[in-house]
Amino acid sequence: MGKVDLRTLAARLNLSMSTVSRALGDKQDIGASTKKRVLKLARELNYQPNAHAAGLRHRKSKTIGVVVPEIANNFFSLVIDGIHEVAHASGYHVLVYLTHESLHKEINIARHIQNGRVDGLLISISSETVNVDHLREVRNAGLPIVFFDRVSNEMKIPCVTTNDYESAVEATHHLLDAGCKNIVYFSLSHNLSINGKRMKGYLDALRRRKSSASTILQGGNVHEENVNHMIRLLSGKERPDGVFACVEELAIATYEACAHLGLQIPRDVKVICFSNMRVAPLLNPSLTTVRQPALEIGKEAAATLVGLIESNKKSDPGQVKKVIKSDLIERRSTAIV
Amino acid sequence: MGKVDLRTLAARLNLSMSTVSRALGDKQDIGASTKKRVLKLARELNYQPNAHAAGLRHRKSKTIGVVVPEIANNFFSLVIDGIHEVAHASGYHVLVYLTHESLHKEINIARHIQNGRVDGLLISISSETVNVDHLREVRNAGLPIVFFDRVSNEMKIPCVTTNDYESAVEATHHLLDAGCKNIVYFSLSHNLSINGKRMKGYLDALRRRKSSASTILQGGNVHEENVNHMIRLLSGKERPDGVFACVEELAIATYEACAHLGLQIPRDVKVICFSNMRVAPLLNPSLTTVRQPALEIGKEAAATLVGLIESNKKSDPGQVKKVIKSDLIERRSTAIV
DNA sequence: CTGTTAGCGCTTTCAT
DNA sequence: ATGAAAGCGCTAACAG
């Protein structure tokens, strides 16, 4: 089965390539019957127009790039699912890139996509990313970018996030209402926007209630270290009675630390976290959870980007912030554990 | 910042485009000093060779397509992580496609990639896929394919799987050794290869031990239904005392069913499953688990595909089966729950 | 060692 | 309504 290209079709139909092209492209100035003939044969031979040729001609790839810190993560994979849904519906393909939280890789990726491979970029920046010159470069090359979840304030471009601040306030109130006097905020990298917003919500809520001592415990990428940090903290003399975990990973680390020390959740320690895994609520009803609408974030981000790509106004859209509300904090009525 | 292309570079250096091209391509027949000059300017101007033009010329996209049933799934996202690692190291980009278990979508994807967009395909087929003509078509178009995890025996092409059969035998022995007399096999779609191999291992193990009544419970894609099926089964007169869950999703459904009925795992019901989520072992020590080496599967699959692409021998490689061993069944020595 | 030329497959003027 | 021809950006003969 040799390739079938425009030339093949044209030859078999005794038409010129341009006519065939017009017929397939649904253009003006084409005879109805000719068009029908062309479409028929194209279908028969399963003609697939070469993507490179079309891309070269149009300077469009019909592809969007998605850059995430990691994919083996329920939140990001759900986001990608949402992106996919919208992208596919709009005829776009999805190229996925992983930074593994490395700024170096992020820069590399940014470099390597300025070659027509993608028409735009969706990105959730790595925890190491403070300077965003590499992204400016991408935008200067004419590619629209949309931030999601982890945004940078250094660039005024559209971003899609959740109402982290408000949810964090609410989550903190839950802990306070449950009687916590000594809460730990289990934190992600301090330069991450989501961490910043959640921590601010947390601190503001504490302040507003003129309440409680508070510790900030800095978590990292290494699970075992997170567990050990928490174990150390929970074994201290002033044992915390509440934990606000910035992401699920840290809640799980907390869970393991408690198990290690024989502490019971929620009897000894109340835990609350931002989470997307369906499993977390099963672990312990009180360990849960502000659910982020990952799928919706993905869809919204993709829709925004596709919009930017297709209305190729060079005019900077400026900073359009779309905030998608987290689900309210849920508690299971029936305790499982 | 206008585009910088070969022409730009050539003009600024008073060289011809081909010389510049050669310098950048690290070809023979190029003056050392010229080369240096070219590379220097290219770096300065951040020259990125147009992917479409190169692709058109070489009939290569340096891109591999990955087709998975779903991405919001720890196993598949880990596999993609592995694929990424190898692909990136070999200079390949990764285009991800989701079928959401729909054969229709799978066929569509197969059609839409026969246009030079990808150089090869990694696929884990949907649960609806029995006939694989759409994949034959892809291969006939000259694209190498590698199956991973969920394979089809209809096509003799390389596939990367785990030792499902052996692991299932072993897992079953664990349940029998724990004293189970009435085990349920909680099954996926029957035409999935992984389900077939695991179920066969399960049944063979039972037979070999001349043991136990056994029920096959067919699970599906809808979580609530899975839970309800299991609740119904566990409420029957001959309540099963063991569950072999083909995948983690079904183990979680079982977990919820038990919780709903007030049954304790493992006291009332022993549960074992194939799993990749780090969280499952936390749920209940006895609920665990045959860990599939997802990352390794991804790496191996990608390496195999890249090999096929680069050694562009038209000769059919035939069916090369690579089996990657699952981790042994693990039990946590310390009970957490 | 370097330049000239042709062409990858497609779209799009510009003729007819 | 159709065809001829130019060209997207790059590379690989083929000259020199």
Distance between the termini of chain A: 60 Å
Weakly predicted, low-confidence segments of chain A? 332-337
Looking at this structure, what is the CATH superfamily of the largest domain in chain A?
Response regulator
Write down the domain tally of chain A: 3
**Count of alpha and pi helical runs of chain A:** 13
CATH architecture level-2 label of the largest domain in chain A: 3-Layer(aba) Sandwich
Give the CATH level 1 class of the largest domain in chain A.
Answer: Alpha Beta
Question: What does this 3D model show about the protein?
Answer:
- The structure is a homodimer of 337-residue chains.
- The first copy, chain A, is an alpha/beta fold.
- Chain A is 45% helix and 15% strand.
- In chain A, β3, α7 and β4 form a beta-alpha-beta unit.
- The longest helix of chain A is centred in the last third of the chain and has 17 residues, at 294-310.
- In chain A, the strands form 2 sheets. Chain A has a 6-stranded parallel β-sheet, sandwiched between helices.
- Chain A is built from 13 helices and 11 strands.
- The first copy, chain A, has helices at 6-13, 17-25, 32-44, 51-58, 74-89, 103-112, 133-140, 164-177, 193-208, 223-235, 248-261, 280-283, 294-310; strands spanning 63-68, 93-98, 120-123, 145-148, 159-162, 182-187, 213-218, 242-245, 270-275, 290-291, 321-324.
- Chain A folds into 3 domains: 6-49, 434 Repressor (Amino-terminal Domain), CATH 1.10.260; 61-161 and 294-324, Rossmann fold (3-Layer(aba) Sandwich); 164-291 and 328-334, Response regulator (Rossmann fold).
- In chain A, α1 (6-13) crosses α2 and α10 crosses α11.
- At the A-B interface, α4, α5, β2, α11 and α12 of A face α4, α5, β2, α11 and α12 of B.
- Chain A binds a DNA duplex (16 and 16 nucleotides) through residues 3, 5-7, 15-19, 21-22, 25, 27, 29-31, 34, 49-50, 52-59, 116.
